[in-house]
Design goal:
Length: about 80
């Protein structure tokens, strides 16, 4: 799963109330939690980028292609 598809993936797999609960939980993540999650889903090599930009759970759930490319310097070729 691509990082920016997290929110869409959750919406497809869960009901609205479950999706809100999961989003609420993720929004409380620290940047360390985000880095650990990236490692768990096989994107650990990107962890240093997210850590250096201090991407928290709140920021993670709002990521899109533009933010990844412009703010984090991550393009599709890296994923």
């Amino acid at each position: 799963m691509k990082v920016w598809d997290l929110k869409n993936d959750l919406a497809c797999k869960t009901g609205v109330s479950e999706n809100l609960a999961i989003e609420n939980m993720i929004s409380k993540w620290t940047s360390e939690n985000v880095v650990n999650w990236l490692a768990e889903i096989g994107l650990g090599d990107l962890g240093h980028i997210f850590e250096s930009k201090e991407v928290s759970g709140t920021q993670l759930i709002h990521l899109n292609d533009t933010v990844l490319a412009n703010d984090l310097g991550i393009g599709n070729a890296l994923l």
